[in-house]
Design a protein that fits this description.
- The chain has a two-stranded antiparallel sheet.
- By secondary structure, the chain is mainly alpha-helical.
- The protein has eight helices and two strands, in the order αααααββααα.
- The chain is 70% helix and 2% strand.
């Protein structure tokens, strides 16, 4: 506990007002990192720790985001959507861009494998493409954040392709409906 209080002081809380919350969050991250060889158990343990971090400090946004992305990894897409939707109205939080939130919302919707969910997934992926392609292509990617944005852009394009592939399969293979 003392180590987390020192880490809390050094890191200025990392977006939380509670050393106990930071402890739960950090322990959750450690579970994700050590997830081999029992992936599911490690992810479930990480979720428990993120839940504890949020219980200690409900305003700890980064813990909510990591909880949501961990839920996606476990296939708990409905819970991930419930956690991410309130975050989608925020522009930038503690190193998480609105585009990362939109991308992960798109992934969660896509995996619901319902026609209506594909519509929502497409909208989320399109937000990423529209938002990032407008200012990324003219720039040379020199710093890490821009490389992360470039990765998100590429992943969003992949997401759009997957949504289109699902539609083509449902429309009897008529790809002409989706090609511009």
């Amino acid at each position: 506990a003392l180590a987390f209080e020192i880490l809390f002081d050094l890191g200025h809380g990392w977006g939380t007002k509670s050393p106990k919350s930071l402890e739960g969050f950090t322990l959750g991250l450690l579970e994700i990192v050590k997830r081999e060889p029992r992936v599911r158990e490690s992810l479930e343990s990480a979720i428990e720790k993120f839940d504890l971090a949020i219980a200690s400090d409900p305003s700890f946004i980064f813990a909510r985001y990591k909880l949501a992305t961990t839920e996606i990894e476990l296939g708990n897409y409905e819970r991930a959507i419930t956690l991410l939707k309130p975050l989608s109205s925020l522009e930038r939080i503690e190193g998480i861009t609105e585009f990362a939130i939109s991308y992960n919302l798109g992934v969660a919707y896509y995996h619901l494998t319902k026609d209506w969910a594909y519509e929502f997934a497409e909208k989320e992926f399109q937000k990423v493409v529209s938002g990032l392609s407008s200012f990324l292509f003219p720039m040379f990617f020199k710093n890490r954040e821009k490389n992360q944005d470039r990765e998100l852009l590429a992943l969003a394009y992949c997401g759009l392709a997957l949504v289109s592939a699902q539609r083509i399969g449902r429309d009897g293979g008529n790809a002409d409906l989706y090609l511009d």
